[in-house]
Amino acid sequence: MPSDNVERVNITALAWDIAADIYFPPDFDRDRTYATVISAHPTGSCKEQTAGNVYAAELARQGFVAIAFDASFQGESGGQPRFTEDLAFRVQDFSHVIDYLVTQPHVDADRKARRAELSPHHEGLPDTGSQRRVPGLRREEVAQLAAISTDYYTRLEQGRIPASAPVLDALARVPHLDDAQREYLSELAGKDATRPRRRTRQVLRSSLQRVLDDLRFTPAFVLGRRMDVLAWNPLAAALVTDFAQLPTKHRNYVRLLFTEQHMRALYADWESVAHTSVALLRRQAAHHPDDHRLTELVGELSVRDTDFRQWWAEHHVANQRIGTKTLHHPVVGELTLD
To answer: Given the DSSP bridges, would you call strands 17-23 and 65-69 parallel, antiparallel or unpaired?
Structure first.
């Protein structure tokens, strides 16, 4: 039982940790699951003030599990203090806290995760006939299929111990991960949030720009980290948008897909294109976990668009692939591009 019914935890975010206090009911039973409430502090406050000592403590007395956390750059959480509130980062803080909570055995939450997409029947496990609180495989079933102990798998899922390459390979076989998902799993497992990587400026070689300019009958643009649009040719500007008229930070393909109405009308299958772009962006997030601009982009789009927020929460990943796209241009009509 946590001391005084309060447990202090550090939640891994991107390049820093989020400090949080979990408040448990006085009669807390580890064998039960509880409705859990997140209590956030206002600007200029911290988790020990009203968010924790008043609201979270009272919720715990009423039988809930409650968690109060310090926002990024504030209190005991990491990040260089900014002396200003940033909505995008606050949204991401909530996302990281939720991601942590759904790994805890005492939290009663309907959640969509990879193991929720599987069924015991399809994996060759006996059907016990008992009703499942959430869809998919239970922890002990995942552990059984991966040939590891339930306790070991639980600690892995909660991020309390590292995973070896053979264990990761065994776990990847259980939900039948594809190549992109396997790479994503390995990158997440090997992420060192305490040592941010040095970011290099994205610079386009002049030779590549000349190649773009020589493509006089084909629209083309170059994407960099975060799917930023780094360069384009005149046909791409005419087809998609005049990138030169956009502020540099707004020249982002994913941002355009979700914030510009003409982009929704441009793609015949906008939902598929946009969904894939979110999976590509999440793959980038695993590869560059300390990229603050990527965090800001995800936070902004999560606030502004419900589709993005839902698809980002699915944790699907993809690698860049070649394909055919059908577009409806307001001037030239329907186009099919390879």
So the answer is: antiparallel
Question: Taking a C-beta distance cutoff of 8 angstroms, is the pair 21, 6 a contact?
Answer: yes
| Tokens coding 268 | 């015949």
- Whole-number Å distance between alpha carbons of 18 and 20: 6
Class for domain 3-101, per CATH? Answer: alpha beta
State the average pLDDT over residues 226-247.
Answer: 93
Residue 316 identity? H
Whole-Å CA distances, 44 to 72, 75, 252, 274: 12, 9, 32, 37
Over residues 280-294, the pLDDT tens digits come to 898 887 777 778 888
User: What is the third-level CATH fold of 208-337?
Assistant: Beta-Lactamase (3.30.450)
Q: Shortest CA distance to 218 belongs to which of 208, 229, 240, 233?
A: 233
Residue-wise pLDDT tens digits, 151-185: 766 666 655 666 666 666 666 665 555 666 666 56
Q: What is the pLDDT of residues 94-133, one digit of tens each?
A: 878 887 887 787 775 433 344 444 444 444 444 545 444 4
Q: In the structure encoding, which two tokens stand for residue 48, read together?
A: 């020990």
Between CA 9 and CA 301, with CA 80 as vertex, the angle to 5 degrees is 80
Residue 11 CA to residue 213 CA, distance in Å, equals 47
Q: Give the Å distances, CA to CA, from 305 to 53, 92, 162.
A: 34, 14, 35
| H or E stretch covering 89 | helix 87-101
Q: Where are the domains of the chain?
A: 3-101, 114-125+135-176, 208-337
